[in-house]
Design goal:
This protein is an alpha+beta fold. Helices cover 45% and strands 13% of the residues. It has five helices and four strands. A two-stranded antiparallel ribbon has the order 1-2. It has a two-stranded antiparallel sheet with strand order 3-4. The longest helix is centred in the first third of the chain and has 21 residues, at 5-25. The radius of gyration is 27 Å and the shape is elongated.
Length: 142
């Protein structure tokens, strides 16, 4: 059987349109519902994959809201979907910013915070504060 290029193009185009129409007809369900109910999952998707999609969706939703610092803290940053609060609230005695990298106060903070034990799931508050103070070892850089 001989098929011309024109006929081949038409056959391919019809098949592509049929596949696209099939995807449009399928109902897109919530990934968390797919994790709970196996009848809602696409064929070939495991429960673990559906749970991962659900977790990713929850992280995205949590990432949409900005973090609010805890009581007594100045900054907040989202890390792995959770908010981490750090930094002392308020202004310095002279009315300026508390965080002044490259000063004696900065060097003292860096030396003190260097001795704090590392956390299990970084970055922790100490690491975030050291970054703000621009700590390199026990010294604060300008």
């Amino acid at each position: 059987m001989n098929i011309t290029n024109e006929q081949l193009r038409n056959i391919i185009q019809e098949e592509v349109e049929a596949v696209l129409n099939e995807f449009e007809e399928k109902e897109i369900t919530d990934p968390c519902e797919m994790a709970k109910d196996p009848t809602r999952r696409p064929i070939g998707m495991s429960k673990a994959e559906a749970e991962k999609l659900c977790k990713d969706k929850e992280l995205e939703e949590a990432a949409k809201k900005p973090c609010k610092p805890s009581k007594g803290k100045r900054f907040a940053k989202r890390v792995d979907g959770k908010c981490r609060s750090y930094g002392q609230k308020g202004a310095a005695k002279g009315g300026g910013d508390r965080i002044r990298p490259g000063t004696k106060k900065g060097d003292a903070y860096c030396a003190r915070s260097l001795k704090i034990k590392k956390c299990k799931n970084p970055p922790c508050a100490n690491a975030l504060s050291r970054k703000k103070w621009k700590c390199k070892g026990a010294k604060s850089q300008k």
